[in-house]
């Protein structure tokens, strides 16, 4: 049965979302029908389609009592809107349906698992927020919350686990058993990832703690995911309160991949390597699914909690997802590239080979636009690093621009949105190390109206960034500082029919 609260959210989105023109949204990145979104939730296959839910507050562009919004797709690029899926409307989740996941059950139902939140005022007047895990079952549109919710609460945690920070269950089914990982604050104030198992999805038991921050990589670990990839096991977490470590981890909200091995019998995860997942300004709370053809696809909230106050005045939607990305492991590192389905939306191809760049900015005929997929390979002239820096200027119009810069001497890439429409004193620049092969660096840029995603050297590093540059800023140019370089450019415009969101 649809509760009043859910019905109210559904009516609100139906009534008002139509007032937001398509041209004022990203062309192929998911946004909410209206209002605020954060984390991706329930990213999963169901009956041959890919479903994505998300943290959703339709009534304003601020975070508020959390609902789950809902879209689905067949190709990760064109998304169909579905009505809001769940609302905070039961005792177990009366103050919010926080992040969680979904799975297709053998009996054909879709199961959602999420964090139910309720607040209680303490005798000293402060509010305390309790977090517990709940489930709901449905048909891909409508969901019935389980009457026995919560299915997991503080009593299920091992000693020292906080009942106030216990959230974001990521669910999967394996050989008839349900497994789930969730984030939990530990006694030292930092975070751990707990693994639970269940025979039926409603009766759960704590199995093991897979790994813990021990105050090394941030504090509380949110939104975990845990999956095998190319012979390794990946534990992905979103730590709060990171302190910066070199150019690998920036301060604040980060996303960390722990690569290792997993022994299922004793539930032991052995961490072997740690790396950042995205080196840009806007990337958090990623979630993955496995496609029927065996690909591991990741999507994330393309936003940073630290800058959620920085949005265009009067905007009707806020928060967008990244482009879904295919994950793999190469040379012991997590590699990510845009889903291959993006190529189905390639329009006109423009390509240049071996263009010699000397002092000053160069434009190339046919290379411009705000919805594009472009790869630029930069090589030194005669095999020597005969330049100080290479700069790619995007979304430019004389006043505005977004810049990607590569410096061969330090082997670093910088993304810079200082002039990309943000009138705020926020982080606009990030630098990160790359590994050029034979002196050449390959920069693949996917631009949508309000974002840039960069993939360096076939996905070895990714960097995501939101921008609010006016749409009329379409120019692209290439520049070499002090010296000369040669570039190859392959650029596709991205083209969508009008009914794409
Ligand atoms: C991460 C997060 C989750 C939580 C949700 C609430 O961005 O804080 O841990 O479930 O957002 O909206």
TrEMBL record:
Sample GO molecular function, one term: beta-fructofuranosidase activity
Enzyme class: hydrolase
Superkingdom classification of source: Bacteria
Keywords: Glycosidase, Hydrolase
Biological processes per GO annotation: carbohydrate metabolic process
Family statement: Belongs to the glycosyl hydrolase 32 family.
Domain Glycosyl hydrolase family 32 C-terminal: 353-486
Domain Glycosyl hydrolase family 32 N-terminal residues, every copy: 29-338
Protein name: beta-fructofuranosidase
Gene3D superfamilies to which the protein is assigned, alphabetical: Exo-inulinase, domain 1 (2.60.120.560), Glycosyl hydrolase domain, family 43 (2.115.10.20)
Species of the source: Candidatus Faecalibacterium intestinigallinarum
Matching PANTHER family: BETA-FRUCTOSIDASE (PTHR43101:SF1)
């Amino acid at each position: 049965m649809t509760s009043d609260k859910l019905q109210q959210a559904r009516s609100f989105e139906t009534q008002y979302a139509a007032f937001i023109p398509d041209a004022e949204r990203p062309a192929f990145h998911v946004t909410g029908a209206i209002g605020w979104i954060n984390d991706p939730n329930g990213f999963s296959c169901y009956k041959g389609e890919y479903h994505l839910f998300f943290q959703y507050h339709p009534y304003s562009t601020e975070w508020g009592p959390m609902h789950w919004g809902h879209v689905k797709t067949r190709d990760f690029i064109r998304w169909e809107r579905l009505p809001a899926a769940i609302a905070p409307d039961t005792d177990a989740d009366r103050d919010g349906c926080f992040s969680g996941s979904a799975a297709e059950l053998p009996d054909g139902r879709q199961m959602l698992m999420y964090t139910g939140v309720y607040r209680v005022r303490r005798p000293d007047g402060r509010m305390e927020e309790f977090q517990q895990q709940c489930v709901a079952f449905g048909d891909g549109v409508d969901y019935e919350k389980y009457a026995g919710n919560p299915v997991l609460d503080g009593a299920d945690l091992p000693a020292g686990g906080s009942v106030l920070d216990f959230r974001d269950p990521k669910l999967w089914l394996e050989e008839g058993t349900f497994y789930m990982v969730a984030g939990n604050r530990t006694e030292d104030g930092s975070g751990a990832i707990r693994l639970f198992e269940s025979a039926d999805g409603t009766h759960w038991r704590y199995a093991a703690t897979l790994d813990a921050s021990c105050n090394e990589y941030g504090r509380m670990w949110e939104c975990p995911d845990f999956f095998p990839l190319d012979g390794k096991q990946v534990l992905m977490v979103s730590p709060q309160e990171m302190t910066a470590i070199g150019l690998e981890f920036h301060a604040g909200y980060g996303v960390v991949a722990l690569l290792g091995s997993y022994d299922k019998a004793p539930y032991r995860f052995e961490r072997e390597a740690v790396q950042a997942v995205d080196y840009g300004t806007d990337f958090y709370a990623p979630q993955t699914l496995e496609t029927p053809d065996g690909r591991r696809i990741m999507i994330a909230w393309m936003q940073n909690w630290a800058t959620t106050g920085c949005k265009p005045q009067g905007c009707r939607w806020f928060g967008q997802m990244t482009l879904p990305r295919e994950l793999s492991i190469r040379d012991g590192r997590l590699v990510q590239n845009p889903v291959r389905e993006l190529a189905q939306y390639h329009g006109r191809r423009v390509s240049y080979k071996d263009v010699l760049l000397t002092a000053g900015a160069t434009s190339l005929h046919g290379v411009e636009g705000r919805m594009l997929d472009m790869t630029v390979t930069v090589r030194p002239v005669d095999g020597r690093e005969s330049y100080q820096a290479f700069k790619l200027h995007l979304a430019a119009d004389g006043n505005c621009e977004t810049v990607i810069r590569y410096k061969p001497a330090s082997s670093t890439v910088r993304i810079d949105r200082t002039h990309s429409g943000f009138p705020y004193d926020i982080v606009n620049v990030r630098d990160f190390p790359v590994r050029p092969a034979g002196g050449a660096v390959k920069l693949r840029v996917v631009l949508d109206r309000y974002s840039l995603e960069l993939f360096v050297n076939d996905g070895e590093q990714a960097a995501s960034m939101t921008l609010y540059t006016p749409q009329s800023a379409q120019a692209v140019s290439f520049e070499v500082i002090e010296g000369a370089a040669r570039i190859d450019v392959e650029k596709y415009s991205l083209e969508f029919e009008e009914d794409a969101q």
